[in-house]
Automatic annotation (TrEMBL):
It holds the Pfam family FUSC. This is Fusaric acid resistance protein region. The keyword Transmembrane helix applies. One of its GO terms (cellular component) is plasma membrane. It comes from Pseudomonas syringae pv. actinidiae ICMP 19096.
């Protein structure tokens, strides 16, 4: 029972922004369920007969658990009461009235949950520095995902995964506003650049069959070089990789400008004009003074800012 209670507690508390508090609340709810269950099992159940009376006795406990579980600040109490009262106190088809086994099982459940709470507070506290670094790295890796993942439904998968990571991070950082702001800045730059990259990949996937759009064209090669530079930048952001990324984007823009467009130059019919617009969008995002990358752009010269404008 201790292993079962620990597994259930870990599974349920890991989805919350404060696993330690959830585990402790579930332990308290289980203790309340043990007290109510002891009274019902050994003092009330032996004196009833029939399913209707059983429902009458169980209903108040379930109503109390549902009420507590519906309140966000008390959700752990409700979960512990409902789940472990049902496991330990609801009568079996052949009920055995053994108080020693009953008490032993509930003690094991409560101890297992308290161990989970201690582990959440001491071993894996949600406000530890490594947690923020992992979440930040996971957000940045979404750009790598946008560059390398299969193109089928990539836009929706990229958006969903990025926002899901942000939702987890925001909940975990509920008492750390500075960390929340930094993670939000990373999310915005990741979404901007990631969606631009996905649009670039879609344009290349639907290119007309023409020598001007072949894989060996300089502008296609420059796009691949830019992709590798962005991967390095978002895996390990620093001033050197930011400079390399900007140079790669500039090179791609120049190659696209130098390429011959075989069809009409209107935006709707010109692949290269659309590609160039996405490249300028990526460059603007890299130079955004409000983004997290701005911390690595201290060494940028004035000409780079003028060119971005």
């Amino acid at each position: 029972n201790m292993v079962l209670a620990s597994a259930a507690t870990v599974a349920l508390s890991s989805t919350t922004h404060n696993p330690k508090r959830m585990s402790f609340q579930m332990a308290t709810g289980t203790l309340l369920g043990a007290l109510l269950g002891f009274v019902e099992t050994f003092f009330l159940f032996p004196h009833i007969d029939g399913f209707a009376l059983l429902c009458v006795l169980l209903a108040p406990v379930f109503v109390l658990g549902a009420f507590l579980g519906s309140r966000p600040q008390w959700a752990g109490y409700g979960l512990g009461l409902l789940i472990f009262f049902s496991i330990g106190s609801v009568p079996d088809n052949l009920t055995v009235y053994n108080p020693y086994t009953f008490i032993n099982d509930y003690i094991a459940m409560v101890i297992g949950m308290l161990i989970c709470a201690a582990a959440g507070a001491i071993i894996l506290p949600p406000n530890s520095r490594w947690m923020w670094q992992r979440l930040e790295q996971a957000l940045r890796n979404q750009v790598v995902f946008a560059i390398s993942a299969p193109l089928d439904r990539l836009g929706s998968r990229f958006e969903s995964q990025t926002r899901d990571l942000m939702h987890q991070a925001y909940g975990l950082a509920i008492s750390r506003p500075q960390v929340q702001r930094e993670l939000l800045r990373w999310m915005f730059v990741v979404l901007e650049i990631g969606h631009a990259i996905i649009e670039l990949r879609r344009e290349q996937a639907t290119l007309p069959v023409h020598p001007a759009y072949a894989e060996y064209q300089p502008w296609r090669i420059a796009l691949r070089v830019m992709g590798r530079a962005l991967v390095r930048l978002f895996i390990q952001p620093d001033a050197v990789n930011l400079q390399r990324g900007l140079l790669a984007v500039d090179q791609a823009i120049r190659r696209v400008q130098e390429a011959d467009e075989p069809f009409a130059s209107h935006f709707d019919t010109s692949v290269l004009r659309r590609v160039k617009s996405y490249l300028h969008f990526i460059r603007t995002s890299l130079l955004d003074p409000q983004s997290s990358l701005a911390a690595y752009a201290v060494g940028q010269n004035a000409s780079g800012v003028v060119h971005a404008a």
